[in-house]
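User: Hey, quick favor. My workstation is busy. Could you predict this chain's structure for me?
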Amino acid sequence: MKAPIRICTAGPADAGIISRIVERSIKVGCAADHRNDPKVVAAWTHNKTVEHVQPWLADPRLYLSLALLDDKPIGVAMAAVSGKVAFCYVLPEWFRRGAGQALIHGLEAWLLERGFSQTRLNSTRTGEDFFQHLGFRQCAQTFSIAGLTAIPMEKSLTLPS
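Assistant: No problem, here it is.
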């Protein structure tokens, strides 16, 4: 029997693993978005270092969570008190196994607890189908940022039944 994925709040000691998960997810899992262009990869990852992650973990306006499988971190997600999902990254070898879905559901619960009835995010082309599967819909025109296509998406939040 496969162990369940557990979601927990990230802490200061998790900055290194968060940085590594995000970088690997971008470099390997999002290759269709950046087309292995070193400049695009560098632009996307330059602010995902341990030094950048540490202040996020200390910022009370942000919520970072980890997806754990057998106590091993396999994914990370972040939301803000503004109601926006900032990101959701999973190690490529764990794509399509429920970690991303569990992370997003955890962020949605966190946002609902803070009174939000809707959330927004910017997806890449790689993530678009995933977010649509979770109920997100495109809400504005796509735009380009750092050599990537961003797709603005939104979702109404409801309490689980």
